[in-house]
Structure formats: structure tokens, C-alpha cells
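re the bet — no i am not wrong, look at it urself. input seq straight from the record:
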Amino acid sequence: MSSPEKPTPQTPAPKPVAGPTGGKTPDHPHVATASAPVPAASSHGGVKRWLVWGIVAVLVAGGAVLAAPWVRRALDTVSTDDAYINSHVTLVAPRVSGQVARVLVDDNNRVRKGDLLVELDKEPFQVEVDVAQAAVAASEADLVVAEAQTRGIEGRTRSLRFNLERSIEDVNNQIAILRSKVAFLQSQKASLAKAQADFERGEKTFATKTISKEEFDLRRESMLVAQARVHEAMEGVHQVRVSLGLPLEPAEGHDLAHVPPDLDQTFSSVRQAQASLMESAAQLGVNESFTKSPRQLVADFYKRDPKGQIDRIYDELLKNAPALKQSQAKVLQARRNLERAQLNLRYCDILSEIDGVVTRRNVNPGNHVNDGQILMAVRSLTEIWVDANFKETQLSELRIGQAVDLDVDMYGSRQDFKG
């Protein structure tokens, strides 16, 4: 300890200070402690202490400000390191079977949509295209022939329709001739009756020598001629009746001129003409019943056009003729076969459907591949996402649409991705 200093008259005596013995003055009457005057350097020490504490306070406050977002983030967010990047994968497979001619890509090659990946041998498919083209040419030629044949059938049908009408007219003409023959027969019978009456009168007068023998012979000759003419007229009537399919003598109660009212519809030549017309019309797609009468058949045929224009009816029948439709269908089928052959030829070029990176290539030139066989895969580089696996206790506060920060190991903290 330092030795005490004397007090000056202006300075009062210092009060005793408690010592280490609990505040009692030590048991030495000549030793006393007194407060020494504060040196001038003590004020500079206090400033330093306040300065240090101020710096500490600023550092603590700055650290709190800087740490606040991290603390808040730790309290408000969840995180996981069980996450990996994923993307769509397009499997590449041929649409036709064939032998591989070239493989233009390898694993990890970047490709764009439409880039050629694999090429199959095109020669067999080119042959199929050539065969299909020849089939199209043949079917088109057959179509031209069918059109010509259909035109011929149309002309024949027109002719047969006129033939049917002529057959009906012939029957009606024969009926008219029959009636004319019957009328002529009646006139001849009347002439015979007159000649016979003149002969009978002459026979009586010749016996009395009133008329000469010469006149009597003339009357007898006129009667015989009249009889021959009646017989001739009767033969003519019988001939017409036979040509109409009628018996020589009519039924009881009818005269020689009587014919059935529908003879012009049932006569054999008319029916034959009707059958020929129906056969020809059937090739144009007109199917009618044989039970119809010729008159009804023709009337129904004209009803195919609202105005009954026969040319328009035939034009419509020509367009829809079965033979023509069949040939047109064959042409269409041949063209579709050609399109399919051309499509298979294009399928020999196996193209990338998306932009991406080639993976899992397992094909080489010379391999025979089947349609649908997986040759490689293309992984998209644009449609990508992150599959993150959180714990069940972390899922309660997760919602769709919340912001996400992504840190990738290969970039470290240098790159922060937002999602």
C-alpha cells in the first residue's frame, strides 16, 4: 500500500475508510487510510469505456438487423435436401419395321425438334410406293372404261324405253287393224248378202225366162265372189287375232273385235320389252318390281324428276350408276394405298419430336427393328421441374403457389434459383 500524505490547513481531515477487517480501523494507531486525489487521466479512461460499449452496441444492433431475416426465414420456411431435377422424357420408336441404315446421334447429344435421329432402309418402301402408283394408274383407267360402259348402258336403256313404247304401240296398232278387219268382214258379209239375194231373185226369174242366162250367170258369179271375199276377210280377222294371242273365235257373247282391255300391257312382246328395259336400267341402279305394268313402270320412271325431264333423270342415274361408283371406289382405295405407302416411306426417317438431350440409345446400323420398339429417349430441357420430398411434419404449411428458393449442389451458393 502507499504511505499516507499530510493534510493541508485548507483540506479537512479524511474520514476513515473501512478496511479489510469489516469496517473497523486496524489496530495500528499510527496508520490511517485516506482518499487520494483523482489523477487527470481517469476522465480519458471513461470515454474509452463508453466508446467501446457504443461500438459493441452498434455491432450487436447490426448483427441483430442482419440476422433478423435469417431468423424469420428459419421460422417461416421449411427445407429439404431430398430433391432432384426431373423432366419429360419422349421415347423414340419407329412406326414401321425395317433395317436400320444410319444412326445420327449418340447419348448426351442435344437435338432439336425435327432433327433426324435414325434412318431405316428405304428401298423396300420405295418399291411399295411404285406398286401403289401403278395401281392408281390402273384403277383410273378402269374408271374411264366404266364411264364409257355406263354411257353405253344409258344409250341402250334409252333405246329399250323407246322399244317398250313401240311394242305397246304395235299392240294397239294390231288391235286397230283387228277392228278394221272385222269392219271389212262385216262389209263383205253385207255384199255377200246382197249378191245372194240378187242370185235368188235371178234364179226365180230365170226359170220364167224373165232374165237371160248371161245375166243369171253374172249374178251367180257375184255371189261366189262375195262369198270368197267374206272368207278372205274372215281369214284376215283370224290372222290378226292369232298375232294378238287371241283365240280364232271370241268367247260367247263377244264379237270378233273384242280384246282384253289391258292387252297392250300384258302382251308377250310388251312384257319382253319391259324385261329388257328393266335389265338395262338395273345396271344404272334402277330396281323395279316385275309386278308393275309397263305403263306404271314408265310413269314411276318419269317421277324421278319433279318436272319429268328425261335427260336430267338419265344424268342423275349416270352419276350414281353402280359400276361407276365401284370404279370410283377402287380409284379412291388405290389412292389411299398410295398415301399409306408414301407415309411408310416417310416413316423411314425417325425424327425427334421435342428439343432435348438423347439418352438410353440402344440401336446401331444393321439392326432390324419393329414398329413400336424403343430405340432411344429424348429428355426435354425446357419442360423441367424439381421433385422435392418433405417430411410429413413439414407439409402442414405448404400451399400450391408458394415461392421456392432452389440451391443446386453443382453451383453451390453462387446461383440461387427462384421458383
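see?? The longest strand covers residues 376-388. told u. also The longest helix spans residues 123-207. so pay up
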